[in-house]
Amino acid sequence: MALLDIQNLTVEFQTSTGWFKAVDGVSMSVNAGEVLAIVGESGSGKSVAMLAVMGLLPWTAKITADKMQFQGRDIQKLSPADRRKLIGKDVAMIFQEPVASLNPCFTVGFQIEEVLRLHMGLGKAERRARAIELFKLVGLPSPEDRLNHFPHQMSGGQCQRVMIAIAIACNPKLLIADEPTTALDVTIQKQILDLLMTLQAETGMGLIMITHDMGVVAETADRVIVQYKGRKMEEADVLSLFENPQNPYTKALLSALPENATGDRLTTVSDFLTVADLGGAA
């Protein structure tokens, strides 16, 4: 049984001109111990699809799916209370902008201990000990002192590590990492990726990596889903995708990588595609 199984997921938002499909009939699954990368340009619906799973979209969003199951449980039919028990414990997410995702009014220690109190039922001393252990695990220096810091007192990379600590605090079975290295310098990017892959290998959790960086995909993924304007264009194991892409959009995406540039300008995806190539999705 797949850890997460989604069939024909559609997410729509109401606009002044009608309903807009941000996700259009996407299907995917991920198994325990597997790394699934979802790749595509900004606005392709990668994050929206996962926020739908997490139940974090506005109530005005229209979400439909033939199937949305976690370990065989229908997520769509869970009561709000049961969904809160699941999300943050068995399914966790590292959000794209860690500084914006952390509450500026509370210390990072309070925020990680809150997760441990709600989902694990730990006492005060146990929560503090576990928080220090997690901060050490994610590589934060002076973890005892760091617990008392507010997000604005920390760098972007440190806030990202705090977000990872919060996400893995309850040993989730599925971790969703949304652009976990965005806006970080190259050295910190590698440290964060190495940390995620080490945690994934040690715990056997399923990992969904949302990214637009094909280098990250090549380095981390077992399977890859390529999205464009809310639609799944291709799905393949990572080696097949890079060596023999089947969809015109995937070929264009790979051809537009800077290392494949020729002449005096960078090529873009649109240089390689027509509307016909995308079945009218352009």
Automatic annotation (TrEMBL):
Keyword Nucleotidyltransferase: no
Keywords on record: ATP-binding, Cell membrane, Membrane, Nucleotide-binding, Transport
KW Nucleotide-binding (keyword) present: yes
Membrane topology, record value: Peripheral membrane protein
A single GO BP: peptide transport
Protein known as: ABC transporter ATP-binding protein
Gene Ontology cellular component annotations, sorted alphabetically: plasma membrane
SUPFAM superfamilies xref list: P-loop containing nucleoside triphosphate hydrolases
Sequence similarity: Belongs to the ABC transporter superfamily.
Places the protein is found: Cell inner membrane
Alphabetized PANTHER family for the sequence: DIPEPTIDE TRANSPORT ATP-BINDING PROTEIN DPPD, OLIGOPEPTIDE TRANSPORT ATP-BINDING PROTEIN APPD
InterPro entries: AAA+_ATPase (IPR003593), ABC_Ni/Peptide_Import (IPR050388), ABC_transporter-like_ATP-bd (IPR003439), ABC_transporter-like_CS (IPR017871), Oligopep_ABC_C (IPR013563), P-loop_NTPase (IPR027417)
Record GO terms (molecular function): ATP binding; ATP hydrolysis activity
